[in-house]
Amino acid sequence: MSLIRGLVSARTWLAFTHHVAGLVLSIASFTVVVTGLAVGVCTTPLAFVGLPVIGVTLRLLDAMAAIERARFRLLLGRDLPGWPADPRRAYRWKVVPTRSTLTARATWGKIGYAVLCLPVSVAAFTLTVVVWSAALIAVTLPLYASDLPGGGPSIDWHVFTGPKPLVIVATLGLVLLLAAPPLTRGLGLADAALARWLLSPPRDAQLKARVTELEVSRGRVVDAAETERRRIERDLHDGAQQRLVALAMELGRAKARFADDVDAAAALVDQAHTEAKAALVELRDLVRGVHPPVLTDRGLDAALSGLAARCTVPVALHVDVPIRPRPAVEAVAYFTIAEALTNIAKHSRATHASVVVEGGPGPAGTLNVVVSDDGIGGADPAGSGLAGLADRISGVDGALSVESPPGGPTIISAVLPCA
Amino acid sequence: MRVAIAEDSVLLRKGLTLMLEEAGHEVVATAGDAEAFLRAVRDTVPDACVVDVRMPPTFTDEGLRAALLVRDQWPDVGVLVLSQWVEERYATELIAGRAHGVGYLLKDRVADVAEFLDALQRVADGGSALDPEVVAQLLARSRHPLGDLTPREREVMALMAEGRTNAAIAAALVVGAGAVEKHINNIFMKLGLAPTERDHRRVLAVLRYLGTS
User: Complex ipTM, two decimals?
Assistant: First the structure.
């Protein structure tokens, strides 16, 4: 059954498409790499001609490798992880490759794949097309055999007639037809294995890169938490604490005045009353900045109402999160939006802002947050607010992107994994 | 007015009791958690009760849930919910289906004694009291365009949603009662709502319009 299903399955025909696309792409990349490197190497004695030619070739190969990755991902469902970004400079003056680029395993892998993929793709394409065609011709032979010259199929001018040879050929064709889908897919997987070996870093290099990334992000999260504690301490000290001191002082003065000047005492009590209410507002804002209780009780959607209402710029909210993510992710999403709205109110001169939150746990697996405005743009991703946000987001393995060209608009988006 | 208080902070419970008694009301029961509070309401059936949202044992929203129970089982008991934070979502749950005889205010509002007592009286009389912060959140989340309203009409609508009477709205905006009436009629007309006389019906209409019930 599964053999028959293979004939019509999407995977088979995607793999088939993969081979066709592979032929075209491999001819292009083979031509680029062979011509580019040959010319580049031959002209190397003229240092300022040869190296840039090699550099341009390598950059073209980068683009081709990206297209190859997309081909493997879309048509075969195979992810080929890229090499982690090298902190060292890859090119001087954009086109002259540095020594580290020329010696990197990634570079040679790319060149290797560009060279090898031509024979591999030609072989895979030819084999696939030949097997499918032969199978279809053989299976359908009984339908047109009588129309062939001589009244039947022929080998070396010997014409076979009668039903027996037809049945044999059609049966062989059927076997070939059933073998064609697994062959098509198998060739795709072999191609994927080759590409993985040449275009992706070995597994332990991937793990090493991940460990480095985690170390950096852990450091950033710890720093962000420390900064946050210092901010809370400062806010408490400068705000509520000072107000309470002033309040106690005013009440003390009122107490002293009650005996001789009741009116003055009443005025002082009045002032103390105002002071106390202001202290309450400040404390509430501070606590909300630490963690809004409604976020725990009712989730993001409910908590965002308060943020939207307090923003001085009108905010359009769209929240579609059917399943609540874990608390850490919810909190990061909430504070991302809070920070973005604060920036909009303070700097953007926008007349309108929009907040969109979608996704969550489930098939998508990520919570996507987009905050945009129609302001003047020019937000600095390295500024303390946005940098702190990026740190916090990296703590849950998310990614922050800031688009804010001068003149606007500003679009801040965060993708937070929910797994 | 006979009042029951549910508040876990002893200091605040005492303060509220003193404030209400000084204003000539009778505090018939005080409770420190939701269970004791519900028992007290059953035993005393007060005119109104003041309930804190966060109470033991989980300190999340048991006060709110107790308030919802009282609202459903004793329709004549006014329920005023107090909270350190006001949230549109809690308000929506509280007023869903019945916007009369319920109130939801920021705890800070007890500092303005006269206004607080006025709100409590309104709730006991079957009116409503919503904190301005909640109303601002409701307006921000409104599912309908409010663009047709003039800034003045928006102000009037916000005050109406808080549960204020025409006279109170007129006083707050320093205009005549006639002007307020005219604004309200315009609002109802622009929003396509049937104008009504009773205060709580107006609040309900506005809240419906804002898409909460």
Answer: 0.76
